[in-house]
Amino acid sequence: MRIGICCYPTHGGSGVVATELGKHLAERDHEVAFISYAAPLRLTELPPRVSYHEVEIEQYPLLKHFPYTLALASKMAEVARLKKLDLLHAHYAIPFGAAALLAKQIVTERQLKVVLTLHGTDITLVGNNASFKPVTTLTIQAVDAVTVVSKWLRQETLRQFPIDRELSVVYNFIDPQRHDSEVCPCIPDRLRRSQRTLMHISNFRPVKRVRDVVAVFAEVAAAIDCRLILVGDGPDVPVARELAEQLGLLDRITFVGVVDRVAPLLAAADLLLLPSSTESFGLVALEAMASGVPVIASDVGGIPEVVEHGVTGYLTPVGDVHRMAQYALQLLRDERLCRRFCDAARARATMHFTYEKHVPAYESIYRRVLGAEG
To answer: Rounded to two decimals, what is the model's pTM?
Structure first.
C-alpha cells in the first residue's frame, strides 16, 4: 500500500505514534509519505520506502493569519498525486483530518481514502471548542475510518459529539527491542543505587500539572536521597523552575529539554510521575513500563488501560500529591517490591502494547477501506 501520514512533528504523543507507525509500515514493505510543516522529531533519517514532504508556510499582506489548513490540503493533494497514494492517515482531527478530506475532493482522478486517528485533545480540547466543533463533527463522520487510542477516548468522543459510526480502538505501542538494548540490562544496578531518581516527561502544558510533580518530589526528597529529572519543554517549565526554587530544591532537579529518544533517559529512572488532569492514553507511561520503570499517575482517562494499579504502578485521584508521594516512598524504600513492579511493568508493556500487535491492526483497517479485506 501507498500511505500518506499527516501529523504534528513535535514531541507530543500523536506525532510520536504517527512517526513510529510510518517507520514500521515501511519495514513491512509499504510506501510511506510524511506530510507536515517540519520533519517529525523521531524521523531523524529517512529509512527505505519513507519520504518527507514539507508544507510551505508563507506570508501575504492581505491575510491576517496564514491559511495553514488550505496549504496543508493542497500539499496532501500534491503528494497523493506524486506518490500515487492509496490513502491518507491523519493523526489529529484538526487540522489534519479536515485537510485530508479536502485533499480527497481535490484528487478526483483517484479514489483516495482517509483514515483518521483521534488522540485525545483533538476531542477534549481543540475539537470541542465552539469554533471547531462543527468541523470536527463533520470530519469524524465523513472520513472512511476512525480509530481512537483508548476505550475511554471512544466513550468520550461519543459523549461529546453527535456522531453515529464505528470507532475502532487501536492502542499506542512501543518497540520492545529499543528498550531491551538501552534500558533493561540496567535495572538491577539501578535498584542498588543509594540516590533514587524520579522522572517526568511531557510537553509541560497545564494539563500535565507540573506543580504536582515538583510537590511530590519535595515530599519524597524530605524523606530519602533522590533527584528529579524533567524531560521536555513547554509553557509550564518556568512554573516548575520557580516552585523548585521556592522550595529550595533547584539543585536536585535537572531540566533536560526535548529529546527524540527517551529510552536512554529512562535507563536512569526508578519511577515515572504522571499527575495529569487528563490523558487519553499516556504514551510516556507505556514507554516507562517498557523500560521496566513503574508509573505513579492520576486515575484518569485512558491511563488505567495502561497502568495496572498495584501491579505496574499506582493510580491516585488528580491532585492527591501526598498519596502519590507515599506510593513513591513505598516503592523506593523496598527493593524487592520495586523489582517486582519493574518486572510486571515490562511484562505488561511487551505483552499488550507492542508494534507487532497494533501495526497489523492499522493495516487491517487500511485494507478494509480500500476494499481489499480478506
So the answer is: 0.90
